[in-house]
Design a protein that fits this description.
The chain has 341 residues and is an alpha/beta fold. Helix content is 43%, strand content 21%. Bound molecules: pantoate. Pantoate binds next to helix 6.
Length: 341
Amino acid sequence: MDIVIIGAGAMGGLFGALLAPWARVTLCTTNTEHAAIISRQGLTLTSMKGTICRQRVRIVVDPDPEAIAADLVLVCTKARATATAARTALSVLRTNGLVLTLQNGLGNLERIASVVGTSKATAGITSQAATLVAPGHIRHAGDGPTRLAAGPGQSERVEAVAALFNRAGIATTVSDDVDSLLWSKLMVNVGINGLAALLRVPNGTLARVPECGQLMVQAVEEAVAVARALGIDLPYEEQVDRVRQVCVQTAENRASMLQDILKGKATEIDVINGAIVARGEEAGVATPVNLLITQLIKALEATVDQRIRGDGDGNHVHAPVQRNHFGGRTFFQENPCNRKN
Ligand code: PAF
């Protein structure tokens, strides 16, 4: 199978590294330094056990439709890049190909389907976790089930993708209820991402500290009320327990939205807590906690150049904004290899 993965960050890189021994994989990235390192020396993957391996994989910055054809396009970009990713997907997709989004939040599938056609677009969710520790280097941070949705007429293609994922060690099942899949992952992101970014804490803290836990419960309960009003069939009885469980399983993880905030980048708030507010308005369900989380994250994004941080002695300093490897702004150039998580 020829696979093109658009977005070679943590998740795209992880899927690329795991699938490359089993399929012809091409990664697409906008990060030229990341691309240069991977082309030169392969993609470095630190496994969950801490072993390090290098995987040879093709990586391109400008995918050339004359040179690349895909049976499967995996979209692993942030939501802000979905429209561009969809156009790239269309340019490389074979006639009977499939575009699969593994992105967070709501709206990505619809955006992709509007470009490539409904019959060629589907979505999945994954509990795999990964961190981009440095250009060319991904750390596999968590293992968990992956679920793919098969829409009408897609079963054969989606089953073939699931079989390949399973061969590559990515435990995968198929479902026919795409809304149920996407909303079950949405609950996790609604409970974790915005709060982790606002409080600047790893996921585990949200479940451990009661003051954080209360906010998490309120955000998730609002999202459950919206889902019920819209007739979405949620797979777990107790959504709040499920979100707490994910916090524990990914206790050391920095949620993707926290990573965006630390890099001074725009977040996915509009497709997560913001999506609950929008769908709540449609369904006539009040969502004040999700609205406040959305507004606070947007205020954080808008004040990125003016952040003040403590210097450890009770004094406060304006943090210099620097360009980082990823083209975003950051307040401190930490060495990710020194991170505890
Ligand atoms: O976006 C993320 O960071 C992840 O989806 C999750 C599950 C919240 C773990 O950090």
